Fold:
Amino acid sequence: MTPKTTDLLLDDVDRRLVAALQCDGRASVEQIAGVLRLTSRVVRRRLARLLGDGTVRVVIAPQLDPYEAVMLLRIRVLRGSLDAVTKALAERDDIPFIDLTAGGDEILAVLASGKDPRNRLIFRQLPATRAVTSVEAQTAMHVYADASAWRLDALSAAERRELTAPVRSHAPDGLGREILAALAPDARQSAAALAAKLGRPESTVRRRLTAMPPVTQTYVDPHRLGLLVDANLYLRLPPAELDRVGAALAAHPAVHGVLSTTGRANLHVAVWLPDLEGLHRFITGELAALGVTDVETVLVGRAIKRPGQPIGSVIPRSGSLAATVRTPARTG
Structure:
């Protein structure tokens, strides 16, 4: 029986290509090939496969107002209504992330709740939904690391420097906003494709992209990296320890998100690990060494929505936590 593409572990070349896109999601095939010492043909073919099957997605980084609050939601739902509530949440533009817990009775979501502390969804809509049995909302106070900062350790420091796009902080004007909106479903669209979509001269679009390259985020299916366990850890720490522990965990390669939050658990940590034994070692080793004594562990069973992901689609998964990931036998 031939394994599906999404069952295969990425090889070293594919991992380096993913890492290159994490530096700059719009880096050209020729630039990537030159830095990684590959042929343009190999880079073009492999990127087409990785992007085509959904293993990798390159999106425009969300433009959040610095005063806009972000809330982490834990929503308990009657099992028979889980799909309906999840679908309704996924259709909202202000909710970019949705996960289902492995137990199947809780929805985990990230809400860009705006400047109003009494968000309508939290205080009126969800409590009025009979299928919802409880809602816990924690507001993020400080971000030590988020998903966009997570990097595969597959490039040298020199390669990362060569591939990382310069950061430009200018606010986009009318054309800039048009370009960002057009890039939303696929941040690697060419200037020619964007010009055709916007009805603008290609030279104008190309100049704007060169002068103000958009900030991108690259998402990769962690199962293709052999990371079968996705878990959220809710830590309770003394205030004097928050910065020390938060900064230390932000630098850990297994961690793809660390935020201090309101609520009983004041530090939220998201990790990807190969298996449950690895999660056990992380808790009893790394967390214990940092002096953490109070932690709640919640396993993610399925990723439902990510930024730039079409409504109704599901991020490819390899099945259950115990799924076997096959190693590919291919070269070039």
Remarks:
- Confidence is low (pLDDT under 50) at residues 311-332.
- Residues 276-289 form the longest helix (14 residues).
- Strands lie at 56-60, 69-77, 97-101, 106-114, 132-145, 216-220, 229-235, 255-261, 267-273, 295-305.
